[in-house]
Amino acid sequence: MWTTMRRALDRALYRRGFADPVLRGVVRRSVFFSVLALALGALLSPATPVIFWFGVGNLIALWNFYALARRIGRLLPAGWSSATLAGLLLHTAGRLFLTGFFLYLCLVKAGASPFALLAGLTVVVIDVTVCGLAGFSSRSRP
Predict the structure, then answer these.
(1) What pTM did the predictor assign?
(2) HSE (side-chain half, CA atoms, 13 Å) at 41
(3) HSE-up of 51 (CA within 13 Å, CB side)?
(4) Residue 98, CB half-sphere, CA atoms under 13 Å: how many?
(5) How many Å apart are CA 123 and CA 116, to the nearest integer?
(6) SS3 assignment for 37-56
(7) Chain centre to alpha carbon of residue 120
(8) CA nearest 65: which of 33, 108, 41?
């Protein structure tokens, strides 16, 4: 079952432009972890909403990483120019604004635990850093 889901997600990510297997693996692990945390949090939300808010923080960070990785993956083959860099910066600033807005809604309007959101945001960053560096450093260099 897990192998089938992993292969299906790998194929979907590949079709969406994630040709690099290391990057695809990082996104895949983050998607699985986010779904698991949100499902577990939804089940246990009446007893302890911390797990749910952890999943929400994880999902916000995953959305940011996914959007940035996909955008850069489309820009790299075309080459860099000042216009593409300006577009990337504008896209990143817009995503940062939306992230702040989502965090505001979670913290102020929904009463989320700031520590749970922070922990969820951090997990994707740690996964990207550790697994990404390990995957890229293990490649053979010409």
Answers:
(1) 0.83
(2) 22
(3) 15
(4) 11
(5) 11
(6) HHHHHHHHCCCCCHHHHHHH
(7) 10
(8) 33
What is the distance between the alpha carbons of residues 67 and 53, in angstroms, rounded to a whole number? Answer: 21
Integer Cα distance of 60 and 121 in angstroms: 7
Q: Dig out the tokens for 9 from the structure.
A: 């997600």
pLDDT truncated to tens, each residue of the chain (142 aa)?
A: 778 888 998 999 889 888 888 788 888 888 888 888 888 888 887 778 888 899 899 999 999 989 988 888 788 777 788 888 888 899 999 999 999 999 999 999 999 999 999 999 998 888 878 876 776 666 555 5
| Token pair recorded at residue 95 | 């995503």
Please give the Cα distance from 98 to 71 (Å, whole number).
Answer: 16
Q: In the structure, how many helices (H) and strands (E) does the chain have?
A: 5, 0
